[in-house]
């Protein structure tokens, strides 16, 4: 997200309150979700580089892919928010509908690791969004979801927004629909299919030591660079 009025750049890492943050900026500008293109919150055009949704550009890609000049990137206040990798993986599992078709362990072993290897924007390590290829942090401020009320106040002060509170945006539940779509696009998941999950409301609440170890192995840089315990 680029807001010229606020002189701000927001690196939106999936499943870390990104839409809530973007909505606040839109509202401050008198815009809404239907007129969000002004902030580069849109699908890319066929001849443009970058991810399918430009809201999820990496920090290095704003300049690297030509969406912003170096001077502007350095002038503007750049920020992002991260979250504990364990809770982020659980959120991905639920949001993308995998909880409706396969177990959490099967998701980690047969989906998560493969999607990270493919550099899928939803599963990409948070580190990859915010650091350069040579290990330099490319944003001015990294807040944490676990203390977002406090950290976002700092962001508001930096961009000059007053009298606003961060809205909590809840997306409609589409778990079953997304889960079935995943089966259709990834037939190899059929071997792990558990039909009873389609009608279950059970959520993952605790992780086994093996699950924690697997997630840590995949997202080691996130744990190490953002101060999260293994």
Total beta strands: 4
Percent range for β-strand residues: 5-15%
Strand order of the biggest β-sheet: 1-2-3-4
Broad CATH class: Alpha Beta
Identify low-pLDDT runs.
Answer: none
- Helix segment tally: 10
Write the CATH fold name.
Rossmann fold
Helical fraction: 40-55%
Structural class: alpha/beta
Q: If you compute it from the alpha carbons, what radius of gyration comes out, rounded to the nearest whole angstrom? A: 18 Å
CATH architecture: 3-Layer(aba) Sandwich
How far apart are the first and last residues' alpha carbons, in Å?
31 Å
Number of domains: 1
Task: Specify the biggest β-sheet.
Answer: 4 strands, mixed
Mean pLDDT, all residues: 92
Task: Please trace the helix and strand order, writing H or E for each element.
Answer: EEHHHEHHHEHHHH
Shape: globular
Description:
With 230 residues, the chain is of the alpha/beta class. The protein has one domain (2-226): Rossmann fold (3-Layer(aba) Sandwich), CATH 3.40.50. The protein has helices at residues 18-28, 59-64, 70-75, 85-95, 104-117, 126-130, 148-159, 175-185, 209-218, 220-226; strands spanning 2-3, 8-11, 77-82, 141-144. It has a four-stranded mixed beta sheet. Helix 5 packs parallel to helix 9. The protein is globular and about 50 Å long. The mean pLDDT is 92.
């Amino acid at each position: 997200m680029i807001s010229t009025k606020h002189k701000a750049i927001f690196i939106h890492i999936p499943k870390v309150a990104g839409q809530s943050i973007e909505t606040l900026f839109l509202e401050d500008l008198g815009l809404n979700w239907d007129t969000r293109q002004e902030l580069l919150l849109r699908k890319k055009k066929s001849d443009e580089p970058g991810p399918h949704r430009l809201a999820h550009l990496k920090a290095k890609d704003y300049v690297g892919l030509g969406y912003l000049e170096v001077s502007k990137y350095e002038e503007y206040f750049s920020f992002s928010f991260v979250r504990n990798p364990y809770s982020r993986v659980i959120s991905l599992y639920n949001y993308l509908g995998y909880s409706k078709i396969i177990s959490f362990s099967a998701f980690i072993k047969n989906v998560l690791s493969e999607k990270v290897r493919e550099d899928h924007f939803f599963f990409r390590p948070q580190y990859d969004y915010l650091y350069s290829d040579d290990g330099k942090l490319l944003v001015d401020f990294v807040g944490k979801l676990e203390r977002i009320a406090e950290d976002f106040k700092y962001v508001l002060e930096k961009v000059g927004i007053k009298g606003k509170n961060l809205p909590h945006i809840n997306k409609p539940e589409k778990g079953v629909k997304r889960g079935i779509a995943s089966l259709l696009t990834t037939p190899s998941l059929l071997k792990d299919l558990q039909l009873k999950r389609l009608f279950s409301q059970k959520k993952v609440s605790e992780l086994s030591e093996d699950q924690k170890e697997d997630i840590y192995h995949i997202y080691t840089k996130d744990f190490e660079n953002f101060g999260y315990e293994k």
